Amino acid sequence: MIYSVKGKLIHWGQDIAVIECGGVGYACNTTLSTISQIQGTQGDVTLYTSMVVREDDVSLYGFATLDELNAFKLLTSVSGVGPKAGIAILSVCDPQSFALAVASGDSKMFTKAKGVGPKVAQRIVLELKDKVSKEAALMGENVNVDFSAVGKGNAAEAISALVVLGYSQSEAARVISAIDPETSVEEMIKQALRGLAAM
Length: 199
Prior knowledge:
By secondary structure, this protein is α+β, with helices and mostly antiparallel strands. The protein contains nine helices and five strands; from the N terminus they run βββαββαααααααα.
């Protein structure tokens, strides 16, 4: 198995990056986020990889961060979610947003990805909810949100109100989780709207 590739970026496109290592160009399927981080780099580029072997194909998937690779592995562990869908999802949300959407039950976030319908999105949330909470450390520090606090009381009411205003459940949960749970619903909404405007 290839853990990572390091070398010069010799070609990139919308969903592919070619890294030259020892005279060999490794074509890595990747996300828009990784492309934006590495394109135009003059020195060596490192991509953390996952190799997918099928009967008729061997493909390499590369990511600029271990967080993104771990999110990809979690996504492709869900039945019905292949590597292409995993790449599509991680092209519309970063690993922290992915983990937050799963933990807060925001399946609509995943339907923004090309080829991901509501049933698959709901299956992602259902199958990964427990895994994401256990593996939150792998996703980075920003996903350590107390979901038990945001799922009840004033926080739950404030999140519902923000969703009615057009924000996604995961966006609302992210800002509400940073507010004292004893705050009134009205004040929570005001503070959350200020926080969302600043994002």
